[in-house]
Predict the 3D structure of the following.
Amino acid sequence: MPITAQHVSKTVDAYLAEHPDEKDALSALVVALDEAGDSVTSRKEFRGHVTAGAALLRPDGRVLTIEHRALRMWLLPGGHVEDSDTTLADAALRELAEETGISPDRVEPDGGLPLHVDVHWIPANPAKGEPEHLHFDFRYLFRTTADLIELQEEEVTSYSWQFADMLTAEPLRTRVMDATR
């Protein structure tokens, strides 16, 4: 069963219970949930839609980043949810496996809540007929001892294991650093 607005809403509520200071930062997500309902998980919902990402942490305190081909930016592995995903965490794990080749059996989830929920603009993509729109990125923390990467070259051009203090986005940086302790 695809991810529903109810699942997203429950996840947002639980996340905000842990991080009430982020209520304003997630206001666009709350509005999109109210207006779009279950279509908030569809990549064709251009008021904004849900995506899922993975902060993959090794025991040495390094986190995996990938260079996204289309955006030409270094990001955490992640992407759009699919109808086959049953939870946001499942979507993050699937995207991690697809983009990096790291098998889900080599990865351990670290808690049930997202480590961070980020709201950011995605530029228009005329080739795909997509206007500028918001991504509501639910980022989950996973742990691994794996380091062998097999990149999905259609979407990813390179990868790097960076120390957590090299991440620039807050509060993601601080939360990943705290997880290394």
